[in-house]
Automatic annotation (TrEMBL):
Protein name: ATPase expression protein 1
Organism: Scheffersomyces spartinae
Length: 434
């Protein structure tokens, strides 16, 4: 008998007839528990379990090393051992065939965390080791034989100069890419004129020249090519830094120009001369723009791996809040950056416990010599007495400075120590220790 007569298709190999399904959908195959209305189905869905189970935690979340805000600590092997053997650390005595041993559960975590913490202290180079900026005198402008008016430059004089010498036309051709670089250097352009004016001897002598020139650069900023932005900012910073007094209007023009340059080139701080970037941070501080100064310093420390000049760091610490200086931690560990202002700032604002003070003493001892400890002995003991301490803490600090570092205590410190022992109701004295 053929397949077609048995009810099979000779083409597809399937039985002819109605639709065949592997899963039955007749109501007779529906279980009793499935015969629910949509509303009953929704009510049958169990509620979500709480995302935060109400279970008591037996541990504390570990703070990331870069979120501690510390600026004076660098851990050693002694710190690792002390932490692992602290009173609230899990230590277990394991007995075996070879005898009893101690298992320190937190040692791997502590070691990794402290290594990451210490790696936050980046090795820095002195900014003075970098190449100083070079400012050129441009022959294309000098050939024009321009004479600055004795009464000072004005917007009218500047507009006459750029229109009579096709300066705007030349700059536009360069921006449009219609001139080769070799051709462009032979033509007077807007940025070359500004470079020449900023280096002119008579420009800085008159106060009205400053505001007029800054305002003119701001108005024609779109004529400055991208390749000249860093040089333009370098020249402006060098020019502003040479002024004894900068009025508010001039600084606002200066700040606007730099911010425009940042919009066009976000990596401006790393592209410009490091010495000029440090000077820019100083000028920002002088103009009360602390946040902008902070961004420049962050770029120098974290991106360029350079230590800002001590004068810039001192000026920044005098105007900022204590919690804003954590990015300067590599600077504080840099050998040539610990000035008297920095030391007093750290003692006053960054020591909150005996552990902090011990680490600060360790920093001063290892990087800046015992002479520094002798010079700031009163400030160190005064800071210690402000903290919640015991007789042991005071005695340990005396031994560390006097016995280990040969610090000769002066009369003020001796009186301070005696008064502190008395306030602690202690019978201890310097004569018993030394």
């Amino acid at each position: 008998m053929s397949l077609s007569r048995r009810g099979f298709s000779t083409v597809t190999g399937l039985r002819n007839g109605g639709l065949h399904m592997f899963l039955p959908n007749e109501t007779q195959y529906v279980f009793k528990g499935e015969r629910l209305t949509p509303q009953e189905n929704i009510r049958a869905i169990p509620s979500k379990p709480p995302l935060q189970p109400q279970v008591k935690k037996f541990y504390n979340d570990i703070t990331r090393p870069d979120q501690t805000g510390d600026v004076i600590k660098r851990f050693t092997l002694t710190d690792v051992i002390t932490t692992c053997l602290a009173s609230n650390s899990l230590v277990d005595v394991v007995k075996g065939d070879g005898g009893a041993g101690i298992e320190l559960y937190f040692t791997p975590v502590v070691t990794k965390w402290m290594n990451d913490f210490n790696n936050l202290v980046l090795p820095l180079e002195d900014i003075s080791s970098t190449e100083p900026p070079t400012f050129y005198r441009y022959k294309a402008i000098e050939d024009l034989q321009l004479e600055v008016p004795p009464e000072g430059i004005t917007s009218q004089w500047l507009n006459e100069i750029i229109s009579s010498n096709k300066i705007v036309h030349n700059s536009t051709l360069i921006l449009q890419g219609k001139l080769l670089p070799m051709e462009a250097t032979k033509l007077p352009t807007f940025e070359l004129l500004m470079f020449w004016l900023l280096s002119h001897e008579t420009i800085g002598g008159l106060n009205n020249n400053i505001t007029v020139l800054m305002s003119f650069i701001e108005q024609h900023f779109d004529l400055i090519p991208l390749a000249s932005l860093e040089t333009m900012v370098d020249c402006l910073v060098h020019y502003i830094h040479g002024l004894e007094i900068v009025d508010k209007g001039t600084f606002e023009h200066f700040n606007t120009i730099v911010q425009h340059a940042l919009v066009i080139n976000a990596s401006l701080y790393t592209k410009m001369s490091p010495i000029m970037a440090d000077t820019l941070a100083f000028e920002y501080i002088r103009g009360n723009n602390v946040q902008a100064a902070r961004q420049v310093l962050i770029s120098l420390v974290q991106d360029a791996k350079l230590a800002p000049t001590p004068s810039t760091v001192d000026a920044f610490l005098k105007t900022c809040f204590a919690e804003d200086v954590s990015f300067l931690k590599p600077v504080f560990f840099h050998r040539n950056s610990m000035t008297p202002d920095v030391i007093l700032f750290l003692i006053t604002h960054r020591v909150h416990s005996v552990s902090d003070l011990n680490k600060l003493v360790e920093l001063l001892e290892s990087y800046h010599g015992k002479e520094t400890l002798n010079q700031y002995q009163y400030q160190l003991f005064e800071c210690l007495c402000r903290l919640p301490i015991t007789e042991v803490h005071l005695t340990q600090m005396i031994k560390r400075l006097v016995i280990e570092n040969s610090v000769k205590l002066n009369d003020l410190v001796i009186e301070l120590i005696d008064n502190q022992y008395s306030s602690l109701n202690s019978h201890q004295s310097l004569s018993k220790i030394l």
